[in-house]
Structure of dCMP deaminase:
Amino acid sequence: MAIVGQDVERKDWDTYFMDIAYMVSTRSRCPRRHVGAVLVQGKKLLGTAYNGAPMGVQDCSEAGCMIAEEWEIKQENGEEQMIKKQRCIRTIHAEQNLLLFTDRADREGSTVYVTDQPCWTCANMLANSGIKEVVYHRGYPKDSEKVVTLMGHKGIAFRFLEGYEPPPQAGMSVIS
């Protein structure tokens, strides 16, 4: 029971909005990764989205993942290495859904909180969306270097939320 007049510890805004992104991610039916994203202007929540199949289409839990394999040449320790990437192409990513279901005018100068660091495709879309900042919690090493470079080039603040702990109700193990 709270005592009237006594300050109760409040969450900071980053934690508050990332908690919402994680709770939104619980709507995802993807067996590989639940991702949630929220659009915030100042301290006002303007939209939420999660990853999943297009509306009215069977999702991964019903029809299985559609995995596409790609190969990329990457420089590591001065040597070229072929890196295999696997991506599910059945789902629309949370960031993409967020951009589809929010207005450009609302995105101008806004912040996107997303549970996972955006992939290359989502980063490109976010770079043209009018946002000023991306805050994420879980890394996505497959595209990280390129995404960080792009965000820097576009002048979009790109922050890893250090020390953050997701709400226990949003727990999920992630398949890399």
